[in-house]
Amino acid sequence: MSEFIKPELVCPAGTPASLRTAVDAGADSVYCGFKGPTNARNFPGLNFTKAELSESVKYAHDKDAMVLAAINSFPTAGRTDIWKKSVDDAVELGIDAVIIADIGMAKYVAETHPDQRLHLSVQAGASSPEAINFYVERFNVKRVVLPRILTVPEIKRVHDAIDCEIEAFVFGNIGMMAEGRCSLTNYVTGISTNMDGVCSPASHVDYEPDEEDGLTTRLGDFAIDCISCGETAGYPTICKGRYDTAHKKNYYAFEEPISLNLTRLLPDLMRAGVTALKIEGRQRSRAYIRSVVSAFRDAVDAYAAGDEPDITELIALTEGHKETQGAFKSKSWR
Ligand code: SF4
Predict the structure, then answer these.
(1) How does it assemble (predicted)?
(2) In what order do the strands lie in the sheet with 215-219?
(3) Which of 82, 109, 108, 111 lies closest to 97 in space, CA to CA?
(4) Of the candidates 3, 199, 302, 312, which lies 20 to 30 Å from 209 by C-alpha distance?
(5) Is 120 in the pocket of ligand 1 (CB under 6 A)?
(6) For the segment 240-275, what is each residue's pLDDT rounded down to a tens digit?
(7) pLDDT: is 268 or 315 the higher one?
């Protein structure tokens, strides 16, 4: 046996069908959101009505899996009732934890539903012990989802100085480390990642054939990439477009289309005190969810048993078959 406690595997569920798939593939918990602007993945075709979430909670609980409700976008003045109702509905449905980013919503949960388990979303951007302890002391937060800007030794230092659990992203999409603070999409589309829950909405994406059988990708009025014939391309977000700058032509000025993959770092993360491993991807297909969750289930179980897992399948599931360990090893930005 290994020297660390087996962590919770926290998996994405964009739809009721994805939730069932993740649970059946071995998720310890799934995270999901209501339809509407209250969560950070407010895409058409995704998310849950109250009735769907009720059924899904029952399904998960029957299989000993937990359901975490992400209510983690930022309400604006005059619209807070929508967020409060989502919290009330989640509590009524017996959700295992509410994931909150906005400090006002944290206060609302703590005061209105003091027995409800509360997690602090990555969107809150709390990365120092002082910030995290503030939420723990004031709002009884039980877990913090750390921004993807910390190294393993930094996570260990945070762990040693806080009084709540740590959840860390280990696989999936990686942005430019602007957790909860990215305004790129607002600039181009007028729709906010932080307040509307939408980055690079499909309604604003357009592909124009060019003269060389390629495609120019547009978001709003801006060309953000040119894709050659036969080239693979991910979903067009602004941070992963190719641009001409004063110094260089046609390159990924912010970030490459690449996936975070920390599988090899799992033992280090567990030793550092991470107790929940989060897989990104509520917008992904059921086939993807099944493959990634199963592979991580096997990897976590193998590491926890002191064995070495085979992770080749996970590499095949990365965006463009390219992986990074982000700020943990590969990137200099933070
Ligand atoms: S533009 Fe990139 S960094 Fe900003 S919210 Fe979208 S995916 Fe994240």
Answers:
(1) Forms a heterodimer with UbiV.
(2) 205-209, 215-219, 222-227
(3) 109
(4) 199
(5) no
(6) 889 888 889 888 888 788 888 898 899 999 999 999
(7) 268
Ligand 1 site, residue 175, Cβ cutoff 6 A:
yes
**112 C-alpha to ligand 1 centroid (Å):** 32
Residue nearest to atom 6 of ligand 1 (CA): 199
Name the residue type at position 241: G
The whole-angstrom separation of Cα 216 and Cα 98 is 40
Can you tell me the distance from the alpha carbon of 90 to that of 99, in angstroms, rounded to the nearest whole number?
10
Q: 303: CA distance to ligand 1 center in Å?
A: 32
119 vs 135: CA distance, rounded Å: 10
> Distance between CA 31 and CA 27 in Å, rounded?
10
Q: Which segments of the chain are extended strands (E)?
A: 8-12, 29-32, 66-71, 97-100, 118-120, 143-145, 165-173, 205-209, 215-219, 222-227, 259-261, 276-279, 323-324
Residues carrying CATH 3.20.20.70, the chain: 8-174+258-329
Q: What single string gives the DSSP state of each residue in 255-316? A: --S-EEE-GGGHHHHHHHT--EEEE--TTS-HHHHHHHHHHHHHHHHHHHTTPPPP-HHHHH
CATH class of 8-174+258-329: alpha beta
* Phi, psi of 290, deg, nearest 5: -60, -45
Q: Does residue 224 have its Cβ closer than 6 Å to ligand 1? A: no
State the Cα–Cα distance between residues 206 and 43, nearest whole angstrom. Answer: 16
Q: Is the dihedral of CA 175, 155, 334, 295 positive or negative?
A: negative
Task: Classify 17 as helix, strand or coil.
Answer: helix
- Give me the mean pLDDT over the 32-60 stretch: 95
pLDDT tens column, 137-155? 999 999 999 988 889 999 9
Atom of ligand 1 nearest to the CA of 183: 4
51 contacts: CB under 8 Å, gap ≥ 6:
none
